[in-house]
Amino acid sequence: MDLREALFPDGVIEVEVKAVFGGVQIIVPPTLAVECHGVAILGGFENLNRAPANPDPSAPVLRVRGRVLFGGVQIETRLPGEKLHWHHHHEEHHALHEQKRALKRKIKELGRHDPAGK
């Protein structure tokens, strides 16, 4: 989600993310205040908190919350028009895909060895 060109209203903008076997990338401009809180199981949730101690109530604040399983949430700061580094994210996506395939193989293997025949 690239928010570098977004026009935000005053106050808090809440975004809830959920990811399973995947990731979420949010790109924000350097001037946007960000609060990030979430839970990751076998993954990562970047807890980027970049908000002034005494925020201006009329200034926008992006509040990201969520849950992630076998994946990650990453928030990057980039200037509008700045080139993104997609090759790094492609490598992360490929690694997560490989983990997902390995887990599916393991589940299938466990099913074959189930003594109850289920």
Give a structural overview.
- By secondary structure, the protein is of the alpha/beta class.
- It has one domain (11-112).
- The protein has one helix and six strands; from the N terminus they run ββββββα.
- The strands form two sheets. A three-stranded parallel beta sheet has the order 1-5-3, with no helix packed on it. A three-stranded parallel beta sheet has the order 2-6-4, with no helix packed on it.
- It is elongated, with a radius of gyration of 19 Å.
- The relative contact order is 0.24.
- The model has no long low-confidence stretch (mean pLDDT 81).
Structure described in brief:
With 118 residues, the protein is an alpha/beta fold. It is 23% helix and 36% strand.
Based on the model shown, name its key terms.
three-stranded parallel β-sheet; single chain; alpha/beta; 118 residues
Structural class category:
alpha/beta
Distance between the termini: 42 Å
Compute the number of helices.
Answer: 1
Question: If you average the pLDDT, what whole number results?
Answer: 81
Following the backbone from N to C, one meets helices and strands in this order, namely EEEEEEH
Number of strands: 6
Q: Major sheet: order of its strands?
A: 1-5-3
Helix content, binned percent: 10-25%
Sequence stretches where pLDDT stays below 50 over 5 or more residues: none
Strand portion, in percent?
35-45%
Tell me about the largest β-sheet: 3 strands, parallel
**Radius of gyration in whole Å, from Cα?**
19 Å
Please give the domain count. Answer: 1
Shape, principal axes of CA atoms:
elongated
